[in-house]
Amino acid sequence: MNNPFTKKLAHMKIINPATEAIIRDIEEDMDETINEKFELLTQGQRTWAKVSVDERIAVIQKFYDLLEENKDELANTLTSEMGKPLQQSYNEINGARGRIKFFIDHSKKYLSEEWITTEGATKEKIVYEPLGVIANISAWNYPFLVGVNVFIPALIGGNAVFYKPSEYATLTGLHIRDLLCKAGIPFNCFKIVIGRGNVGEQLLQLPLNGYFFTGSYRTGKYIAEKIAGKMVPFQLELGGKDPLYVMDDIEDIDKAAADALEGVIYNSGQSCCAVERIYVHENIYDAFVDSYTVQCKKLKMGDPLDKNTDIGPLSRKEQQAFLSSQVDDAIILGATIKCGGKIPQGKGYFFEPTVLVNVNHSMKLMKEESFGPVVGIQKVKDDAEAIQLMGDTNYGLTAAVYSKSFERAEKVMQQMNTGTVYWNCCDRVSASLPWSGRKQSGLGATLSYQGIRAFVQPKAYHIRG
Ligand code: NAD
């Protein structure tokens, strides 16, 4: 009578955001299937923890190779389910492989036991033990990149992973599961949970040993509150409202405008570290706005499978109305559109790349995360005003400064309460550096050696005799 498979499973439709065609109708997990997977993961983790770090790394090396071998299918799936231009899907897979390579090369050093005291009566060492079974609740915008930040170091660290891909990147999640198993991850060390937020919610009920979340501030806060009493490690990689400031000493305005534009529109602006606000010194403001607008108007929006396409659709239909409401709010409060601003006619969840000027911080456009190819460009009279406006946000992910002078830029960067700062670049992540948000952009760090140690717990040995 309690057989879970006699119950009717809920279904979820996977829709191509460029064509609105249904790609797949897929069954969601439910309490019973999730509980069953959890039991298997608990058993699997005990065995996996006994496998040497070298052997675990060898399996991940195989996964790294399989990503390359299967990149055409993986890129096509990613583009069809979340809409990014095909070349950007290839870039994402290559980028994910770069991060995996970092973990392959550096994990052993940071997971090996450390002798602290070898002289005297009491010897001391630190041993790094796995957390256990961890949840990896993930976002759709870069499912490979944000996924490998978590499940690769978690697996190398000896954990089993309960992986919840976003409902907008489910097919990619299934590919990841299949390739990890093919590479040699035991079937009961990596399990996928299929479904929407209510299905992810079931993971919060389980006695998992760590929660690693990538997504919105709203969901991250909810999850953090819900699991607080478990007293297990958790990390949150959340949203941003990242500023870019252009100083008046830059030599190449067109180059700065091109960089800023790419930071705004890459992945249709659906990047946690996308440039979301631009401040420009008044001495070069008009020239910068002209250059940005001219370049923006040249962008080709359309079929993400066409190699000439710069901008694909948004991944979620509701985001069209959300961006429209930000643009409308800004216009009511005095902003002017330089280009874009509309939802084009026809199929697909497209939104024109949009530039607004005469903007200020009373407008939602300059305060709320947009997560689309939309930006406001605001004039500032000096560096002090730029610093004040850049810091006027609840988020703290990244901040970029363009200037000829590192010294001048550094004075601004030092005052940014963000996990990352950029000089003459933007919208980038390095596997060698910690990726972390402050304030409502998150808690904890992935990548770099911090992102290896995040998935293990230290045990202190006091050894006498
Ligand atoms: P989201 O918060 O809507 O969903 C994230 C994940 O949480 C999904 O898998 C979803 O199914 C799941 N979820 C939703 N409700 C849940 C619940 N009650 N319990 C458990 N799981 C639940 O976010 P999204 O739309 O997928 O991602 C976009 C957001 O992610 C943006 O704000 C973006 O800036 C942020 N993001 C941040 C980083 C970073 O590194 N800081 C990287 C990528 C994306």
Description:
The longest helix is centred in the first third of the chain and has 26 residues, at 86-111. The model has no long low-confidence stretch (mean pLDDT 97). The protein contains 14 helices and 22 strands. It has 465 residues and is of the alpha/beta class. It folds into 2 domains: 11-238 and 441-464, Aldehyde Dehydrogenase, Chain A, domain 1; 242-430, Aldehyde Dehydrogenase, Chain A, domain 2, CATH 3.40.309. A 7-stranded mixed β-sheet has the order 12-13-14-11-10-16-17, sandwiched between helices. It has a 6-stranded mixed β-sheet with strand order 7-6-5-8-9-20, with helices on both faces. The chain has a 3-stranded antiparallel β-sheet with strand order 3-4-22, with no helix packed on it. Helices cover 40% and strands 22% of the residues. The structure holds nicotinamide-adenine-dinucleotide.
Write the topology of this structure.
Blueprint (H helix, E strand, L loop, with lengths): L10 E5 L6 E6 L3 H20 L2 H17 L1 H12 L3 H26 L2 E4 L4 E9 L2 E5 L5 H14 L3 E5 L5 H14 L6 E3 L4 H9 L4 E5 L2 H11 L6 E4 L4 E5 L6 H13 L9 E7 L3 H13 L20 H15 L3 E4 L14 E4 L16 E7 L2 H8 L4 E2 L1 E5 L3 H8 L6 E4 L11 E2 L1 E2 L2 E2 L1 E2 L3 H4 L2 E9 L1
Parallel strand pairs: 5-6, 5-8, 6-7, 8-9, 10-11, 10-16, 11-14, 13-14, 16-17
Antiparallel strand pairs: 1-2, 3-4, 4-22, 9-20, 12-13, 15-19, 18-21
The site of nicotinamide-adenine-dinucleotide has 31 residues, from helix 7 and helix 8.
- Mean pLDDT across the residues is 97
Q: Tell me the domain tally.
A: 2
> By helix and strand content, what is the structural category?
alpha/beta
What coarse outline follows from CA principal-axis ratios?
globular
Helix proportion range: 25-40%
